[in-house]
Automatic annotation (TrEMBL):
Listed name of the protein: Sodium-dependent transporter
Location of this chain's protein in the cell: Membrane
Domain of life: Bacteria
Xref: PANTHER family: TRANSPORTER (PTHR42948)
Location (main, coarse): membrane
Length: 486
């Protein structure tokens, strides 16, 4: 049984989609990962490359996903099947939808564990569990938090339940309502932290750390990290954006919407950097890597400042909210597929998904304690989930999506959905046909270990390849000729 796509729920307010999609995009990826990798891969130079990746790959892929969702008015599987059917192509392309749905689900199974850290630290802040601790004690607290499966399991279960409660309430009452206060609230809290940072004495160092341009620090690894992070941070190829797009009213402009979300996501990432690093530098700490950055150093820094507990509470409330608005978007594809195809109510679909999710995420959570030794090829379950989704499923899904849009579907589909002027449409087509696929293929070449593509060194070659494949592609494609010579 498939419900009528025309009667599909839509976002209530003008800002419904933008808030929800921004809520999905802005998450743990922005708040701890972006500032840290920016520092590691060359500061300002990395930021520039990251911005280029967002524009050249992220924005075209996001526009494609929203257009597919709105055109197909369904979960990724149903939407892609419908849109492909419209162009008279085989339904095998709906495999892309299956992969996206699975990808969102798998990301969430480890994301709830990290979000659980955030919730547990909020509790520690509130209950005074972090008071008076030294650097060593902080590290021990972080370790102890992970060591007990009951403790860690409690927090990730809480995140799972919260996610499912919101998703179960539905698109308008659950998702739209919650993000409409969570997102602005988060921005306000970030601003408060930035203003505090300005007076903390570490602001100048933070600015230098984030925006100093050192071209020599542009490594191939940094470029690849920037490209990979562009996918993750914009929630692409994981069903989230496509499904949210399926609730987008017909009159909304996809290009404008996409640019707004991408800009908001980037601004929040930069703001997070400006909020976090002054605190780190003012307290004489060095920006350390990964989860440690926030969970070990920040509580310590908050203790050293006036009103630190209050700021610490604000910070972890903000991080937990950002994580939650991303979590809900990761299961929306699955829940909407179950409702449309299996006749489940939203509530039943949410709880059913939640139970399976809980089982998988419990396995991921055990990687930090009793299951630390259950490894395969040196990675435990948590790492495998991260590796499979970020390294393989997202780039592969993104590649499929742009190839589908660029070469398989009738050009009217996107001409109508995107509603761009001829010039902008040609630019979008050039991006999805050549620039985005080439960029994604470079990630694969690197991931497969075939060769390290050193962008700083090889960019003339890459440019030449781009020109050649564009020429070959355009000469052999009668459709683009029609676009260019209407
Ligand atoms: N964009 C989210 C973040 O930056 C993560 C995410 C990935 C959300 C995939 C939805 C889908 O944390």
């Amino acid at each position: 049984m498939t419900t009528n796509p025309q009667s599909r729920t839509q976002w209530l307010g003008r800002w419904g989609f933008i808030l929800a999609a921004t809520g999905s995009a802005v998450g743990l990826g922005n708040i701890w990962k972006f500032p840290y990798i920016t520092g590691e891969f060359g500061g300002g130079a990395f930021v520039l490359v990251y911005l280029a990746c967002i524009l050249a790959v992220g924005v075209p892929v996001m526009m494609t996903e929203i257009a597919l969702g709105r055109r197909g008015r369904g979960s990724p599987i149903d939407a892609i099947r419908r849109v492909v059917g419209e162009s008279g192509r085989g339904s095998a392309w709906s495999l892309l939808g299956w992969m996206a749905m699975l990808c969102g689900f798998l990301i969430l199974s480890f994301y709830v564990v990290v979000a659980g850290w955030s919730f547990s630290y909020l509790w520690k802040m509130l209950s005074g569990g972090l008071a008076g601790s030294s650097v060593e004690e902080m590290a021990a607290i972080f370790g102890a938090n992970n060591e007990s499966p009951l403790n860690l399991g409690f927090w990730s279960t809480l995140v799972t339940v919260a996610t499912m409660v919101i998703v179960g309430k539905g698109v308008q009452a659950g998702i739209e309502k919650s993000v409409s206060w969570m997102m602005p609230g988060m921005v306000v809290m970030l601003l408060v932290l930035i203003v505090y940072g300005m007076f903390s004495g570490g602001f100048g160092d933070a600015l230098r750390f984030l925006f100093s341009f050192d071209a020599g620090s542009l490594s191939s690894e940094g470029m690849l990290a920037a490209l990979g992070h562009a996918f993750f941070t914009l929630s692409l190829a994981s069903g989230a954006i496509l499904t949210y797009g399926s609730y987008l009213p017909a009159r909304a402009s996809i290009a404008r919407t996409t640019l707004t979300v991408a800009l908001a996501d980037t601004l929040v990432a930069l703001m997070a950097g400006l909020a976090i690093f002054p605190v780190i530098f003012a307290n004489g700490m060095s920006p350390s890597s990964g989860p440690g950055l926030i969970f070990m150093s920040l509580p310590l820094a908050f203790q050293a400042m006036p009103l630190g507990t209050l700021f610490g509470i604000l910070f972890f409330v903000m991080l937990s909210m950002a994580a939650l608005t991303s979590s809900i978007s990761m299961v929306e594809a699955t829940v909407s597929w179950l409702c449309d195809n299996k006749g489940f109510s939203r509530r039943t679909a949410s709880w059913g998904t939640g139970i399976v999710l809980w089982l998988v995420s419990t396995l991921a959570m055990l990687s930090f304690n009793v299951g630390a030794d259950w490894t395969l090829a040196g990675k435990h379950f948590f790492d495998w989930l991260d590796y499979l989704t970020a390294r393989w499923m997202m780039p592969l899904g993104g590649l499929g999506m742009v190839l589908l849009a660029g070469f398989v579907l009738k050009s009217e589909t996107f001409r109508e959905e995107l509603g761009l002027s001829a010039g902008w449409h040609a630019l979008w087509l050039f991006m999805v046909r050549y620039v985005s696929p080439l960029g994604i293929l470079v990630i694969f070449v690197d991931a497969l270990g075939i060769t390290r593509v050193d962008f700083a060194l090889h960019w003339p070659w890459l440019l030449a390849v781009l020109v050649v494949i564009t020429l070959v592609g355009e000469l052999t494609s009668p459709r683009l000729r029609r676009v260019l010579c209407p």
